[in-house]
Design brief:
This protein is mostly helical. The chain has 2 domains: 147 residues, Helix Hairpins; 59 residues. α2 packs antiparallel against α3. The longest helix has 84 residues.
Length: 272
Amino acid sequence: MFKVFNKWWKYLTAKLSGSFEERADPKVQLEQAISEAKGQHQRLTQQAANVIANQKQSELRLNQKMTELEKLNANARQALIMASDAEKTGDAAKSQQYTSAAETIANQLIQVERDVESLKALVMESTEASDQAKAAVKQNSRLLQEKISEKGKLLSQLDQAKMQEEMNSAMSQLNESVGADVPSLSEVQEKIEARYARAKATAELTETSVQSRVLEVETATANVEAQSRLSQLRAELGLDAGAAAQAVERGAPAEQPADQPAPQPAAPQPPA
């Protein structure tokens, strides 16, 4: 039962993590990453400061022991000199006292020398650790600066990605229907083009009809002018009589020439 619950827990955790990563804002995550890097550098700097402080403290203790060692050496020499002087003057008791003091100082000197050697090793180790800490801080500082510089580049790329996504979405909306009640731009374009084509065709048909009427009027006018011109030519050529005879045969009244007087009616004859 526990194994099944553990599997489900891991599955849900992975699923929630994946959903979170998909929905999380990259800009916020980038700020979090930079903030974490800064915090890590600050902690590393604090640790390096502690290491360097230990190295400085070891050096101070070593210097103090070195001073104490010099003082003990000087005291031991002085005790031996005073013991020798007392012995020369025949004061054996005082000489013994100075000798005992010199021995005590010598024991202290030996212990201090051991402390000095131990502190020297400690100083060397702390100095090496301090150098490593300084190098680590310097390297991490460089990496942090690179991350901060990379931040601007990543933000620029993020803005470009968002813009490209918006453009892709806009282009897909131009080619796809937005919804059941909203047509796509291509559908609206086709409808407008079809309506424009019909209107253009109707206009061309109307224009053709009007032009045909105008053409008929122009043709009739040209025919009238041509007939008038022909009548004038007939009159000039004296061909009006033939034209009049043809007109009488067709049952139409003959036209009178313009330059001949109209015929007078005949006079009445007297009765026989």
